[in-house]
Amino acid sequence: MGYSKVRHLVEGILGWEESGAPVEKGTGEVVAQEAPPPSPLDRASGGATGPAAPSVPRARAAHSATSLPMGLVQRTVERIAGTSFSRLLGVWLIIVLGCGVLYWLVDLLYATDLREGLSAVPASLDGFFTAMYFSFVTATSIGFGDVVPLGPARIIAVLEGASGLLIFGAVISKLVSKRQDDLLQETHRISYEARLGRIRTNLHLVLSELQTMSSDCGEGAPPPRKMLPRLESAAMVFGGELRTIHDLLYRPQLVPEEPVLEALLANLAAGMRALDDILAEFPEVQRSSLLVSSVESIAGLANEICGECVPRDYAPELKSWMDQVQGLAGRLLAHVRKPR
């Protein structure tokens, strides 16, 4: 929404109002939080100036003090979950290597930082590698027990184990989430291709039906009352597929490739021409409320398909087909809205 300095308040709007912060209502009006009405106990003890009044601020202060650590933990977890996989892995390696160096430095100061078996780990190059080994074992929570921390190293080991498990768990979660995203995208792709196949098939069937009825118009066509059910059914299916094509054009992330879209628009324009011919030949069928409703829906959707209407730029050939579809929409509306 354009805001850059935003933080997550764990307590929500209730916590915001309980803290006495201003609340914005309406068109910019800032009002202070109204104090709740005094309870019978407050009135009995002297109202807001009595001895019971300071208990509310103390309760709010206690609530804020207890919720602050939990809010900090939650924000930390959310920030870790939103970090990229490579950065998480890098932070985990930095923690492991840094704690290994810290074990070795503490060993230089206390000389009893780590113990391997019954002997202390020396503050030498071999001791450095042992400290690194112990750091990796601690961060991965393996804990063989061959190296044991002593003194201040215990505190470092506990903190390293907790942070290592948290970050390593986030890394594993991202690996699983990546696999789930891949499966979900594959499912969407298969579903999307099946949807395009259904649109092509239905448009082909509707176009064949409309062209058959249109060709019958000049060859001793059946009476309009017998043609009307076929025409109503074809118009309803045609309107449903037109709505799907409309959604594809107005949702650019789902738009098919241009050759596929060009074929859909060509079939769409051909079907609208056939429907226009039938309505011009048999004005009697326009008295059907179901047919009129379907044609108005088709014309309304087709009127929004033009080279300058859709939110994505297309090749000139596609824009030409879109303009043809929009022009045919006006002709269909003229048939159903003419005086009878």
Question: How many structural domains?
Answer: 3
Compute the number of helices. Answer: 10
Helix-strand makeup class: mainly alpha
Averaged pLDDT: 77
Computed CA radius of gyration, to the nearest angstrom: 36 Å
Low-pLDDT segments: 39-56
Largest sheet, spatial ordering of strands: 4-3-5
Helix fraction, binned, reads 55-70%
Strand proportion: under 5%
Order of helices and strands: HEEHHHEEHEHHHHH
For the largest beta-sheet, the strand count, sense and barrel status come to: 3 strands, antiparallel
**Overall outline:** elongated
Q: Compute the number of strand runs.
A: 5
| Distance linking N and C termini | 51 Å
Structure, briefly:
With 340 residues, the protein is mainly α. It has helices at residues 12-18, 40-44, 55-81, 85-110, 125-139, 153-216, 224-250, 258-281, 289-302, 316-337, and strands spanning 23-25, 29-31, 114-116, 119-120, 147-149.
Structure overview:
By secondary structure, the chain is mainly alpha-helical. The protein folds into three domains: 7-33 and 57-81, no CATH class; 85-177, Helix Hairpins (Orthogonal Bundle); 217-337. The chain is 68% helix and 4% strand. It is built from ten helices and five strands, in the order αββαααββαβααααα. It has a three-stranded antiparallel sheet. Helix 4 (85-110) runs antiparallel to helix 6 (153-216). The model is unreliable at 39-56 (pLDDT under 50).
